[in-house]
Amino acid sequence: MKSGQNSPSGRILGLDVGARRIGIAVSDPLGLTAQGLATLQRRNRRNDFVELRKVLDQHEVREIVVGNPLRMSGESGTQADKMAAFAAQLQQTFSLPVHLWDERLTTAEAHRLLDETGIRNSRRKEVIDKMAAVLILQSFLDARAARRSKDRSTTCD
Fold it and tell me: Which of 23, 39, 79, 101 fits 69 for a cystine, CB–CB 3.0-4.6 Å?
């Protein structure tokens, strides 16, 4: 698993993986902004991967970012171990770089944003997962852009 190093250009897929749903977001072709796509209702691993393959092909995805549910202390726990295994399966199945990205507080932030927009319970569960995927991916994209900017500024000095 990679932790956010330089990778091939192209769209990046962001995933907020839960037991019942997977929130999905994708970057623009330049890797600057994240947009929510859909929420996949999970049935089983095989079906999940068939559906993800469709998204990867449709959007010409070159990398995948999976939310890593670390404990508030920053340490790995049972859920983070499950995501590491899921990310390894994604990498093996799709032969793409897969990055685990700290997702602490993204669901809480998604709830806060939805409270501000007034979206209520009927659509909230689906929207929360999609929004969490957007927040995970956007955080990854911002960190990568900041790192590249820093790298450029230190090589220009």
Answer: 79
